[in-house]
Amino acid sequence: MTSYLVVLSASGKPREALRLARRLQALGLPVWVRSSETGVNTSTERELAQAMEASSGVVILVDSDQISFAALQDLKCASRFDLPMIAIRDQGNAQVPQAAATFELSELTSADLLDVIRPEAEEKMAALDGPPPVHFLPNPESARAAAANHIGGYRNPDPGSRWAIVLLAFALAVSLMETWHSIATFFLLDKDSPERLFYHASEIDFWSIVFLASTVIAGIPYLIWFNRSYKNLITLGNSDLQYTPAMATGGYFIPLANLYIPAATMQTLWKGTDTSGSLSDLYAWKKSDGSVLVGFWWAWWLAAMIVPRLARQEVQRLSHVTDEKLKADGFRSALSFYIFADLAQILAAICIIAIVVTIGNRMWDRYRRYSTEIAGVTPEPRPKSNWAGQIVVGAILLTGLIFVGVTHQSTNQLPPTEWHSIEQRENGFSVEMPGQMVPQGSLPEPGRHQLLSSTPYGGFMVVEESSDEAFPSDLTFEQLKSVANLALKPLVEAVGKIQGEPSRAMVNGKLGVQMDFTPIDSGSGKKWTFGQAIFLLKGKHFFCLLAFGAPDKHVTDDAARFISSFRAVD
């Protein structure tokens, strides 16, 4: 027999037809496999028709219980040329009505086939007007020529990888800043430092926005690198990829699918650049080992995406919690979730940078070997890495990061205290209350009136009580102190521990009694140590002014304004 046999598969799977072609080749029979079956080019219908016109017969592997639509179309094409058809059964029961003979693959011999086919291919090929059909087996020179032609489609992915590495490194630096502020906030929850707590909390919000923006920017060169590298897999002799380059790249944007496709395609990219297996085997990449590094990268990235959702749910739950200690514990728990997510995204960034670098090296090594050993051409030398542009951009970004961080730090101070001017003539006083007014429920004693307000670092209170008779206006300090011990001391002892002896205090020219105290622990975890109480008399009214909170300038300044703004009115 001087012509060849066209090889098909009932399932339409490329690798199955190729498997039968190699078995026939081992029997010494020349075969033709459509180029899409070998994964080197994409066959046209004209090419298939031309091949069948010049062939001696068609051999179809029965590898499924039904003949696929694509295989049916090929069989119709064979019937037009009146070619003898031979069915080779292997793990399938599909019926091929046109088959002149059926054999078992395990018992197949070349003599069986030669008895059926008609050796007319040589005469048919001589009569063809166009070029002879492409056939890859068993002619190694044809395969080498096709591989050499195909390797010309290789595109160097290094430029995209360099930009991706620099921008991913910048995103990593931003993530480190965010993580630092998250950890600082976590440890400040147990300490009474409202200014620092507010600063770090504001920084977390700021750097999370910067990280999101830097990740989006880094994603552009990363996806360009990824798409180009994935296309190179086909050029470098890999076939039967699960996803097309377009689908592999677009998988990052498809909801739900983006939980799996990026990791799966990155493993394909890793396996497809392996050089330990046979470079001539189009499916050898499937037998290659995957990368643990890729697994770590995707696990950390998913954790960085999913864990913050748990933190947000915890924060939402805390909006209905009134107990200060439970709320503080809940915020600490939510913040620990955010810290874990920050650390996860740092590890994911480190892993993906290492993956981009490693796959770049593996791909270049496979390109060099495939060009030499399979395509028989001299590979182009790998261009020297020119990092000048990336270094300049990286330096600019780093400078900008430092500048923005310093500038933003200078503006992240506690906002000025909001003040409320209150005048209550029926209760005989006017005052300015700082921060947020606290709603009052039922008062502890009839005839007593009180106002409460709070800031992140302190609490402020006015207590007014009236008597049936007016107090003398010429009371001495000792007399005033005796009244204060009766009226003010029980009130102070309810909120703190009195320190030292009462002292004189002047409020807008009015003599009063001052008692310093240390606030008691409310169970919220706040360690407040500043407490000041002032007792005043005016007509039938006596007044107690209390200010307590953190031992810093904010609460003392607000306490001074609060007390100095108080006026007893008739």
UniProtKB/TrEMBL annotation:
<keyword id="KW-1133">Transmembrane helix</keyword>
<feature type="transmembrane region" description="Helical">
    <location>
        <begin position="290"/>
        <end position="311"/>
    </location>
</feature>
<feature type="transmembrane region" description="Helical">
    <location>
        <begin position="163"/>
        <end position="186"/>
    </location>
</feature>
<dbReference type="Pfam" id="PF14219">
    <property type="entry name" value="DUF4328"/>
</dbReference>
<feature type="domain" description="DUF4328">
    <location>
        <begin position="207"/>
        <end position="359"/>
    </location>
</feature>
<feature type="transmembrane region" description="Helical">
    <location>
        <begin position="387"/>
        <end position="406"/>
    </location>
</feature>
<dbReference type="InterPro" id="IPR025565">
    <property type="entry name" value="DUF4328"/>
</dbReference>
<feature type="transmembrane region" description="Helical">
    <location>
        <begin position="206"/>
        <end position="225"/>
    </location>
</feature>
<protein>
    <recommendedName>
        <fullName>DUF4328 domain-containing protein</fullName>
    </recommendedName>
</protein>
<feature type="transmembrane region" description="Helical">
    <location>
        <begin position="335"/>
        <end position="359"/>
    </location>
</feature>
<keyword id="KW-0472">Membrane</keyword>
<feature type="transmembrane region" description="Helical">
    <location>
        <begin position="246"/>
        <end position="270"/>
    </location>
</feature>
<keyword id="KW-0812">Transmembrane</keyword>
